[in-house]
Amino acid sequence: AVVSTQSTGDLSMANSLRRVFIAEVCTLAIDWVQIQQNTSVLIDEFLSHRMGLIPLTSDEIVDQLQNFRDCSCVDYCRECSVELTLDVRCNEETPRHVTTRDLISSNLKCIPATSKVRDHETDGDGSPDDILICKLRKGQHLKMKMYARKGFAKEHNKWSPCSAVGFEYDPDNALRHTTYPVAKDWPKSDYSELEEDQDQAPYEVFGKPEKFWYNLESVGSLKPESIVLTGIQVLKKKLMDVQNHYTNEIAKEALYIG
Do residues 65 and 81 lie in contact, with contact meaning Cβ atoms separated by under 8 Å? Predict the structure, then answer.
């Protein structure tokens, strides 16, 4: 998780940035699955859905891949996708747990986020536990081929880099956007500037939110800092596009009148 502070703008800008973090920062996710063998108790569609929701590390590769809609290939290629395979058979009497540890990627920059944590357990970034895909009994076999592609959560939530994003803008409740039945019963914010004997700040009738504290948690596909920086770039580009379109429309209108 990462905590970031925004000292300019208003509520609409702060919420726009939050929504961009969630839905418009690109990552990689499994988007095509070919089930070659499945004798487990889970149906193909259920397994395909589970594969799509596995977070894949994207920090070092997402900017190098093209969007599949912009790629000139007919199907899939190295310029727009990463191939992953899974081939597990249970030959023991005890159930075999198929996890993200069993996924094999054609590009080591794009692997399950849990595998990256396992290889770098000393960095303390997350849990080393692998994600369970399914369980196999003796004689059961699961084999599949998959392709991960670049996308964003506005199209499907599997591409979202965030598990949660929130922001706080009035830690002392001076704006009274929240009414406390008993003010002293509410825990103080981590960003509160009140004295110990104060429950909430005096009411500011004409006050406006001016500072925002963000708390962002990543699913593991991107580092939290990368999500923040990329999100700011995305929102900046969208605002520039609006400004450019507006300028062009004004110019066209002036030319038409002239």
Answer: yes
Dump the DSSP string for 214-244. EEEEE-SSS-HHHHHHHHHHHHHHHHHHHHH
Strand partners, 32: 147
Q: At a CB cut-off of 8 Å and minimum separation 6, what does 196 contact?
A: none
pTM of the model: 0.82
d(CA 119, CA 108): 12
> Tell me, what amino acid is at 192?
S
Which bin fits 176, alpha (ψ -120 to 50), beta or left (φ > 0)? left
CB 16 within 8 A of CB 235: yes
Q: CA-CA distances (angstroms) from residue 229 to 25, 35, 153, 243?
A: 10, 37, 17, 21
Span 101-141, pLDDT tens digits = 999 999 999 999 988 655 544 344 434 579 999 999 999 99
